[in-house]
Amino acid sequence: MILTLLGGGGFRVPLVHSALLRDRRPGRVTELRLFDHDAGRLAVVARVLEEQAAGMPDAPRVRRFTELADALPGTDFIFSAIRVGGMAGRAADERIALEHGVIGQETVGAGGISYALRTIPVVAEIARAVRTHAPDAWFINFTNPAGVITEVLNSLLGGRVVGICDSPAGLARRSLAAAGFPDLDVYGAGVGIDYIGLNHLGWLRGLTVDGADVLPELLADAAAVESFEEGRLFGAPWLQALGAVPNEYLHYYYFRRENLLAEQEASLSRGAYLSRQQAAFYAAGAGDQAAGSALQLWEQCRLDREQTYMSDNRDAAGTFERDTADLQGGGYEGVALAIMRALSGADGASAGEGAGETRLILNMPNAGTLPGLDSDAVIEAPCLVGADGIRLLPAEPLPGYAAGLVTTVKAVERATIEAALGGDRNAAYRALAMHPLVDSVRVAHALLDAYTDHFKELAYLR
Length: 462
Known about the structure:
Blueprint: E1 2-6, H1 13-22, E2 31-35, H2 39-52, E3 61-65, H3 68-71, E4 77-80, H4 86-99, H5 109-133, E5 138-141, H6 146-157, E6 161-163, H7 167-178, E7 191-198, E8 201-209, E9 212-213, H8 215-220, H9 222-225, H10 229-234, H11 236-242, E10 245-246, H12 251-254, H13 256-265, H14 270-285, H15 294-307, H16 311-317, H17 332-343, E11 358-365, E12 378-386, E13 389-392, H18 400-422, H19 425-434, H20 441-454
Parallel strand pairs: 1-2, 1-4, 2-3, 4-5, 5-6
Antiparallel strand pairs: 7-8, 8-9, 8-10, 11-12, 12-13
């Protein structure tokens, strides 16, 4: 198979490559195409991949492209991991939000809306290129905000699109371990995950092992709840009150004041920190005389990135260190590999599923799964993936604690899409004003002015 990765100069590309190297089965990827407008970043990442593949004579061939039309023809799968505006754009999203007294995280609230407004027009151009040069390819979206971008791509590419995120599987893995099953694969035989919501806005409502739901017993044990990351973030009393385990990003909604204070008191925002770190990595790895091992340098930066992940939230909750198992990073690359193998028919059946089908938590159009959302609304939920495509598994309706928030945030996403595809400033204004993390219409107006003044990519909204 041929895989084309958009954003091929990105920092997380070696994670995808490492997953491809570990896959020794028939039907694996034999050619990896990296597309990026920045040839310098591509060269640094290619150096890391070359070191990763050292000593493996049958490693996938790696090719570099700076023109999308050259990278697409003949490809079987397309991964999108682009960041419009770069890490500096993320830092600006966060800074502007904080200057206006609201949370600045890159995928939720004002920062996520600004990020989407910059990204959707670029994604629309990419979709046009895909229709021309690779109409039969499957498009796997990593690009954030993942739910919004996946919904746009589905509307433009007619269905051969799926969005992925590693948060739900990580949440399920940690919950299984806390419940006394550390060695079980979250997608393995006998394990069932009742997870539902939107991207970065979902809840684990049930967790079965051999047909028995182990989540109620876990939630009843406060010490066990607070032995894993989400339990320490939210606290046992709140998880017990919900009867569910929220996705880590819901911490911004449930602990808004604490998170805002932690972000305001931080010496650097997360985006500014990563912007500085990654600039140093690419500078050190550039040029023919780059000192030392590019792979070792990348590993050091990756470990630091994982150790500091959601550090402001941990500060807001009362500082704690991440578990060693959570520092391995990645996860989404394994999901992407599983999707490719299942869609291509390369894998056999998972236990309990039909021939060649794999069970994964993905971002897909609702198609009647959740009442209250239309069929085209992208949700994040368990799916079956096979050679015939992807289908959502049946799910219970959203509980009361979730339904209103999901409906509101989906309305924000829809207004954001309307603004970006139609060049509608009023729709962007509505999106910002409706978001639960933006608590004032006046602030929403000021945020829109500030973002459109700062970003040249948002000139269409001025």
